[in-house]
Design goal:
35 strands, binds ligand LXE, 30% strand, single chain
């Protein structure tokens, strides 16, 4: 095929085109959020049950239980761990936490441990307590000791640093808390709000896991250790150079019921004041990764937040009646004031300032709800949209509000200027629909392809036949579709693969762009496609010969001003090589260029057993005013050359 490229740009590439969608689906707690202990504060559990003790185990005959304590550490955290040392025990007695399917232990890394404790009744013994990182077979890698006071009947916080002298060979490790059995015979201690953090991205307190945050290139006091910790698997999100961050969901914004919706003001402030909540993915969210952490994260990675506000609908398909929306609209107003308000005029903005960020955060986009095309949501979205939109627009007229139902179905008033479209489909669907936006009217309406992914190769039932990991077929299908998003980025202002992150085993959704376990982040084929687009977004779109609609071969051409670069993206979904001849209308064109190619067998995938099965390969190719490139079967290529 011959591709004639035009030299006159059709439109600028929006600065927000390629970004990230995030919600906690085994991706926040235990994932991006760096807390290493699971069930650290017994949030939303029933005291006295074994489930309340999940992830905790007794050591050497200790008696442990979760109790509804009085006094509680806080109204947000009413449950405590009660440790009773039985009589007749000698040696270390206590309990341990097994983390999120394990804990990675790296020598030389300073782990920050903390917990609250009190003694129910005063006694003379002041007892040492040892906190240690050790294998499940008892090998101690590092520990720290402090003293529990026998007169400490009110809650007090203990902080320790553990710097292991050796690394564990796997993640089958625990954090153990032990006291001497003999001297503590018959005594009781109450504990709560445990925490264990490795060094975090940019060293932020209560921050993000460095490897999932790319980190490593951040100068800080552990630069040697940091490099070691991240050397083997740092990369990920910052390397995508993402332009936006949509959060907190997705389903997890909505909650199953009104009561379990994402309540922004319960996710900020000291951890001991955050109650946590049952998320929509079958586990309790600690909300340690909360609104303020998300906003700092957007700043750290220079991303535009796309902030979802709860819009009166829960996934048990309940809608708040129109005459009862007031408090929830006010909740959204207070949320937005927390993000951008004036601390001198608004108490929620003042809370932001008190947390250390007096200046407003960056915010342009607010999404009203999530997927209001599911269940009974469409029947109530017209009034929910109208009330949220009218009140928020009156309060914050400069923000852009995104609707989440299907466009004009139902008809909404006022008519939305921004829509969030989602699609989960097969690889074939994606290349067959790469022209989706070509025919959309150019009437000022803008589109956010807020969630898309090829999730199955079984068109008859994609939902029950999921790919465990992205593969070459899914990634190249997505690449074809993305050339269409790029071509139509005059009306498509943002797009994100979803979901972003998921645990390799303890997950609720596959495929994910990134998979992780307690040790490693795994980079999928789709991750490389996202990166190859995002890093090479360019500044303006150059029209060219249109690919055959519904065909297997797709391309798009952009111009990057710096360096006079022409960037050609080619997705070949056929099982045969495709030859493309490019005619470039420039006076001077470099005789060589680079071609970064991701290719492999249709089912080839990166996974824990073969994490680097498929990676992009860059080579030098011959280019010129007219040149031919042979696109390998099942491949995505980014060609970069110079022309002016
Ligand atoms: N069901 C998908 C759509 C919803 O918005 C997300 O929470 C889910 C995973 O990305």
């Amino acid at each position: 095929v011959t591709v004639t490229v035009e030299s006159t740009p059709h439109h600028p590439i929006p600065s927000t085109l390629w970004g990230l969608m995030f919600e906690d689906i085994s991706s926040g707690d235990g994932g991006l959020y760096a807390e290493l202990l699971k069930n650290r504060a017994f949030q939303k559990v029933t005291p006295g049950t074994s489930a309340a003790l999940s992830n905790w185990a007794a050591i050497n005959g200790a008696s442990i239980s979760v109790i509804a304590d009085t006094p509680a550490l806080s109204s947000a955290l009413p449950n405590s761990l009660s440790l009773v040392i039985p009589s007749g025990k000698t040696g270390p007695v206590g309990f341990s936490n097994s983390g999120f399917s394990g804990i990675k232990v790296t020598a030389g890394t300073p782990y920050k441990a903390s917990f609250f404790y009190r003694v129910p009744s005063a006694r003379s013994l002041n007892s040492p307590i040892t906190v240690s990182l050790q294998s499940t077979s008892g090998q101690v890698f590092g520990s720290a000791t402090t003293t529990l006071s026998g007169s400490q009947t009110s809650w007090t916080k203990v902080e320790l640093t553990i710097t292991p002298s050796s690394s564990a060979s796997n993640t089958n490790n625990v954090l153990a808390f032990t006291v001497d059995g003999a001297s503590n015979s018959g005594l009781t201690y109450n504990f709560n709000m445990f925490s264990l953090f490795p060094p975090t991205f940019k060293g932020r307190a209560n921050g993000m896991r460095p490897d999932l945050a790319q980190a490593c290139r951040v100068a800080n006091s552990f630069s040697q250790v940091y490099d070691h910790l991240c050397g083997n698997f740092f990369k990920a999100l910052a390397d995508l150079k993402p332009s936006f961050w949509r959060f907190p969901g997705g389903n997890n914004l909505e909650g199953d019921t009104t009561e379990t919706r994402w309540i922004w003001n319960e996710t900020i402030g000291p951890l001991e004041t955050r109650p946590g909540r049952p998320g929509t993915w079958g586990y309790i969210n600690t909300d340690g990764l909360g609104l303020y952490e998300y906003l700092l994260w957007c700043e750290d990675l220079d991303m535009e937040p796309i902030l979802g506000v709860w819009a009166g609908y829960g996934l048990s398909h309940t809608s708040v009646p129109e005459n009862q929306l007031g408090p929830y609209i006010q909740e959204a107003i207070d949320l937005i004031n927390f993000v951008i308000g004036d601390p001198a005029k608004n108490s929620f903005a003042a809370r932001r300032a008190a947390l250390g960020h007096p200046a407003p955060f960056r915010l342009q986009y607010v999404e009203i709800g999530n997927e209001d095309f599911v269940g009974s949501a469409p029947s109530t979205y017209p009034y929910r949209w109208r009330n949220f939109y009218n009140t928020l627009t009156a309060t914050f007229p400069h923000l852009k509000y995104i609707a989440t139902s299907h466009q004009n179905n139902p008809v909404l008033s006022p008519n939305p200027k921004f829509w969030d479209n989602h699609v989960y489909q097969t690889p074939n669907w994606f290349y067959q629909n790469a022209h989706q936006y070509d025919s959309y009217p150019r009437d000022g309406t803008q589109f956010f392809e807020g969630e898309y992914a090829a999730i199955s190769v079984v068109p008859s039932d994609i939902w029950n036949n999921r790919l465990p990991y992205p593969n070459i077929a899914s990634a190249v299908g997505e690449a074809a579709y993305m050339t269409g998003l790029e071509r139509n980025s005059d009306i498509v202002f943002a797009a994100a693969y979803a979901p972003l992150i998921g645990h390799t085993t303890d997950n609720q959704w596959t495929p994910n762009l990134l998979a992780h376990d307690a040790d490693t982040v795994y980079f999928s084929t789709s991750y490389y496609v996202q990166k190859m687009f995002s890093v090479n977004a360019g500044d303006s779109y150059l029209p060219s010969t249109l690919p055959t609609k519904g065909g297997t071969l797709h391309w798009s051409v952009v111009r990057k001003n710096s360096g006079n670069q022409i960037i050609i993206k080619i997705a070949n979904n056929a099982v045969n090589v495709e030859s493309l001849t490019f005619d470039l209308p420039f006076n001077t064109v470099s005789s060589t260029g680079t071609a970064e190619v991701l290719t492999g067998a249709a089912a080839a995938a990166n996974n824990p057993s073969n994490p680097n099965a498929v990676r992009p390969v860059t080579s030098t190719i011959s280019t010129g005013k007219s040149f031919t490139y042979n696109a390998p079967a099942l491949s995505f290529t980014v060609i970069i050359l110079t022309a002016y």
